[in-house]
Amino acid sequence: MIGQAVNRVDGPLKATGRATYAYEHWEAGQPLYGFIVGATIGKGRITRIDTEDAEGAPGVQLVMTHLNTPAQGPRDESIPFEYWRAQPMLTGPDIHFYGEPVALVVAETFEQARDAADLVEVEYRAGRGRFDFGEFEDDTYIPKTVNAGLPTDTAVGDFDAGFAGAEVKVDQRYTTPYEFSMPIEPNASMVAPRGEDLVVYVSCQITDAARDSVAGTLMMDPERVHIVTPFVGGGFGSKLGIHSETILAALAARALGRPVKVTLTRQQVFQLVGMRPTSDQRVRLGAGHDGRLAAIAHDVTMHTNPDVEYAEQTAATVRSLYAAPHRLTSHRLTALDLPRGTDVRAPGEAPGMLSVESAMDELAEALGMDPVELRIRNEPTVDPERNVPYSDRHLVECLREGARRFGWENRPAAPASVREGRWLIGYGMSAAIRGHFQGPTTVRVRLEPDGTAVIQTDMTDIGTGTYTILTQVGAEGLGLPLERVRIDLGRSDHPSSWGSGGSWGATNSSTALHRACAALRTKLLDAACGDTRSPLHGQDPAAAVFSDGNVAIGGASEALREIVARHHPDGVEAEGQTRFMGDDPNYSDYSINTYGAHFAEVGVDADTAEIRLRRMLSVFSVGRVFNPKTARSQLIGGMIWGVGAALEEEAVVDPRSGAFVNRDFAGYLVPVHGDIPADIEALVLEGYDDKANDLGAKGIGEVGICGSGAAVANAVFNATGVRVRDFPITLEKLLPGLPAMAA
Question: Locate the Aldehyde oxidase/xanthine dehydrogenase a/b hammerhead domain: which residues (predicted)?
Fold first, then answer.
């Protein structure tokens, strides 16, 4: 079953509205509703807060502020990952960023809570905030490490000497804006007291982190916190950790002894969830006239919150991508009084490759060389910074196959040289790389007396198809039809996992399930082959074949349910695990990544500078694929996010207050159907990476976005001859440089 294009097993539930999301649970009874009141300044202190009118409003049960919020646990910096730490709210009068919660109003209905929230009177003493990245960009510091525990800076060889001696040089700066994850489902939570326990229905990506974070904040035993998150309406990093809505709902539910439901409005998501930091990236490439890189450097400065540090691993992108003897990467942080940075859609690679792959295109232009050929000439034989072999690298094959299928040979040789009516036509391409990660995950598989398998883990399905691929892996592992495998996800009472995120979810959970099935098969075979009553008695277990609910050895076979009924009348189970990649020697002995190549064709209106993507094709190498149908969907989705990063996405800060001024979908643009042509395709090379895990599979959730925006940006340059380095590429940046056209 692994590798088959199986339809989503949860599809009928979603299509009929029976898939229950965080805001839709009713098993706890009628809830109260909370509405968050946010600060209207970006830095300062509350001098007076008056809740009398709000408390007297119809239906209001509680108004919680820093004056009456119970004590909470502190953020424990010794916990290595932010998402597992306590997240205390309403802890004092100080304001750290615009929109920070200053009160929670709880009422019988959502409308009552929202209306009463307007009655909370707050006076502030505003301080001088640091809101403008450009103003404070030179005031930086060096973080100890960057995201994923990677080193802040790296150096190989002598970059200064190598770059100075290069025959052809590119030295450019590229800037990327604040970006938000923006899943369709806003962050939402309902918390219901159950004796001394709390049941937390929440939209989250890592169940274990949510439980520990709630427990740490409320100073509870984690065993008394029960997270329920069977369906998540998208995450893209924004739900790896929990946020104010969950903690405030939990505090209110405990105080009132009743279920409390809190969701963020779309506008509040922009202030309370965190975002991709804005960045200023300097890329330097030095090469010979033959195109071979002698020196490569990537230096990044980005924003961080002064209280919660986040350093996106943006410059780490280039460390494994191209060969060059002299290398330099660095990360620097500028503290601003804005919401904290967080993981957003391929953190590191997405903004990093937008810059690096644009610079590679500039180098190709300076050399007069085909951009595909330039990348092939700089293909490394070993990881150029770690000096270890690659586990399984087929980037060159992706480049060549993509160029062949796209018709790259028809690319306009000179920028702004091809016109179809009013449209300037251009081709662009880029490479893709994304690190492959592994985290500790446990999966339990249980075979019931009727021969049905039940698979349990706290792993989440964020819309990517986890229910489906685990059904496939379980069916293959036990030789069962798909309809006899049931998946039970998203509950903290199940074995813990690292959830969904970082493109690790599918491979972690599937590998752990694969091992659990192997352990269960061993139990069943030991019982049957040692039992004189079984047709399999005395047979060699190593020759066993599990298929269609039976196990066969040679000419003998027996139904699994018969073995279970005879030896395990209440059912039998086993568990499988994966461990943290730092404890797996393959991750130190090999460089394990996924790869791809993107090709895009754009049209640019010669009069208005309107950019239209005409077609896009990408080819990937991701090891073994669990389900081609869901994989293609994930990859195309990533490619579309790259289009958005290149052309549309940009959150704008008001430098006077620190507020995001375009905090809705009218102002914060993301690609919609009208922006994306039907001619968009993702192809995957056959593969199997035996160093990644037992199944030979690697994560695919984010490699689609890595580099795809650069392919579009490079196509815009090829169409117009105008290089925009301040992303996104908008009309006002492109129009002044467009070539004059004859009437």
Answer: 16-128
